[in-house]
Amino acid sequence: MFLIKVTDRLTKLLMILAAAWAFILCFFILADIIFRALNMPLQGTKEIVANSVVMIVFLQLGFAVRSGSMLQADFLIDAFNPTLRKFIVVLGLLLGAAFFLFLMKAGIKPAVRSFANGEFDGEGALRVPVWPARFTIIFGSGLAAFNYLLLAVIEAFGLSDRLKFR
Amino acid sequence: MFDFGTALIVIGGLLGLVLLGVHVAVALGISSAVGIYLVTGKMRIVEATVASTAAEALRDFTFAVIPLFMLMGEFIGRSGAITDVYNGINRGIRRLPGRLAIATVLGNTIFSFVTGVSIASAAAFSRIAYPEMKAFNYRRGFALGAIAGSSCLGMLIPPSVLMIVWGILTEQSIGRLFLAGVLPGILLASLFLGYIIVSAIMNPEVVGENRSGSQQREAAADRVEMSTGQFLSSMTGVFGIILAVLGGIWFGIFTPTEGAGAGAALALLFAMTKGLTWPQFMQAVYAVGKTAAPILILLFCAALYSRTLAMTGVTTAIREYFISSGLEAWQVLTVILLIWFILGMVIDSISIMLLTVPIVEPIAVAFGFDRLSFAIVGILAIEAGLLTPPFGLLVYTVKAAIEDPEVGVQEIFLSSIPYWGIMLFAAILLIAFPQIANWLPETLM
Amino acid sequence: EEITLRIGSGHPPGVVYAGLMIDYFQPELKRRVEERTDHTINFVEGYSGSIVKVTEVLEGVQDGIIDIGGMCYCFEPSNLPLHAFQVMMPFGTMDPVQSLQIAQDVYAEVPYLTDVFPQKFNQVLLSRIADGGYNLGTSFSWEKLADLKDQKIAGAGLNLNWLKYAGVSPVQSSLATAYTEMNTNVYEGWIMFPSAWVNLKLYEPGPYYTLIGFGSMTWHGLTINQDTYNELPDDVKEILHEVAADYEEQTGIVNQKEYARLVEELRELITVTEIDPAVREAWAESLKDWPQQMADDLEGQGLPAKQVLNLVLDKAEDRGYNWPVRYEIK
Ligand code: NA
Ligand code: NA
After folding, report:
1. Which of B262, B263, C45, C66 is disulfide-compatible with B245, CB 3.0–4.6 A?
2. What confidence score (pLDDT) does residue B93 get?
3. Taking every annotated instance into account, which residue ranges of this chain make up the domain Tripartite ATP-independent periplasmic transporters DctQ component (chain A) (predicted)?
4. How far apart are CA A63 and CA B77, in angstroms?
5. Is A119 on the interface with C (CB under 8 A)?
6. Is there a contact between A132 and A51 (Cβ–Cβ < 8 Å)?
7. Does the pTM exceed 0.90?
């Protein structure tokens, strides 16, 4: 229970952090346009924004999973009998956990490699390191996998009231 | 080498998982992983492909356009300006039959120029227009049909997340797609208006005539309190942002992503002058986080899937099958439209696009369709699915936003039928007259 | 035995080297293997980034996502910084055949350039790939270097440095967005080869193309995954190297022909001017400290940069090329 409370807090915190960051990007871009108009182009805006997209998405992934925002088509299983429906839903959630666990594991090697090689975007301009985005992928998909497992448990044992995401 | 068994598993597996309610992103991811394993036989390569796609597919300046345009729409939607615009239009057309429904369509047309997603339009106008129409004794279904139906304009008139995704998938200029959508959007809005006016004349009961005294009508018409100054400032603000953002993109100041960024910043400043509160601001930022992330994750998983299709050789095989099938161009188009419309019944529009466009667009080009009007036709057909049962995102959005337990989903679905019928009709018009989409981009860009 | 190879690049077939992979490398390998061995070759194609994006090719081949990949070293500034050596010596030869010969001479004397692929990136370098020469296209006409001062001009990657010294405002960009950004005045010019100016219709927003001659760069490569390579039968390996060597020569020859043809095509469309040699020399002069700076930087990373850059100067002269300014690297 305590663990779930902590991860739910974390899930929400990361979501808000990333949302705020996405918001700040718009002022960053505005500044870029203004400085360019004044003939003083800022360096690295594109690279920073590009890497930010990856980080924002994977920071918000856990929340998307936990809050049930992931897009799905549930009209067919809604017509099934409750036991079969529950079975299929749990299976689907476990597949989600499996996929993101797989992504987490798969991401480790290239992230370490990227860090060791000092991989960066923006040759000739501001050099923006790529490894933070790569490590965010590992972290974000790990949290997503955990939340998928949690949802599977909730669904399987009918705990939706006790483990509600607020 | 193309292997039929692998292709069947990759495509059939995906469809099966999606239909069983597995999250679309997960279904794409799992069937890709299985497909890559079948082709390469090495888990190591599956891992490398999945990890590399996660890092590279979204690491692009262009993708920021999605949350940024959403943010712009949210700020304007919550500023109260759209309510002012709606009320202003409403007053200006006092003598027309069905004027509240007409004001809904017109208001939605204007709001469409600042929002990138249709659900934002549906939610906003459920809050703004439904209580009005209810007070005027509109038949509930007719009122909600007008709201859900005209929300579709949100994705057809620029900015539009669907156009952005289409542009990304087919490597076309997003600015050109934006321009191509303007005239078809206005055409569609006019057709909606025509339908409403004809219904109101043929069957005045749907717009509250004969169900309430005319006295009540007049009294209620002036119920809305709003100064002309307030209306003008809202109109100026909204049009100013539209001009700055879309004008900036079309007339050479910045790229769509930059336009979206600047637009979001301007929209915030404007909303603040309109008295945007701190909780409203937080809600806007939060709402974007909640809707943008699932779409972007879907984009990553779709990129993985399209790579899988390339690695298995399926994409090439399907294209060659169609080209060598001996089908006529119009038959191919009919097949494509049918696939979209049927998929639209069960999956959301962005997923459909990600699943089909990388395969279908090269086929259409091979059969001689021009890319711009084909994109708009595709968006129309896919958007129509937002109104069809059993999965009609806009209908559910309206249902959730009106908070009226008396109205059932079926009722909204039923009254939305004319609207998606009109959208399919507009799609056919565009196929017959591709100039409707091409004229503006050719003239201006 | 049937051998299936996933082959691709991040670039579309319209780019000369990628087109040659499809029209020359693939059919030649297939034909010769079938003629001379009992094996057959099947290709699964992944061009235009349909399997790996331009920035992913080195890693993609390393991990076996694709077996054979064509890549630009311009996207590998952290993994293969020295391989862009000709870019560090601007105003070199504009002849792709000669550029390739110079690169071949340099590779012959510096084993690191070839060996780093199997040693660090689990792949084998099959071919070096030449590219058409770089010039400057602009939306305005100009004559002297001073006319370019404070103008916004785009480049991609390392060649952005060619601009810094001329007093222009360099803007980092990429081919994909070039047309829109030129059209929307995000910048007023691009360092670009004629093929892109013609094929991407950049002549519409940029009706002035000046033959500056920044040089033809041999900074692409064709590689094969080490494991895939090891599994190939010996007779196929031998044919692979043979076809790869022919493909390498083809990239020089075809780019040379294409360059001449495309410049002619541009002359019909827009204003094409030859740069005044004095202006070229002044530009080269303004850049004369940059190669040394690059060399020091790369030596700091433990790479034989001084040796390589000096070899580029010498080998170019051996091949009969005269540098407008002879850089000095100590
Ligand atoms: Na819109
Ligand atoms: Na639907």
Report:
1. B263
2. 78
3. 26-153
4. 24
5. yes
6. yes
7. no
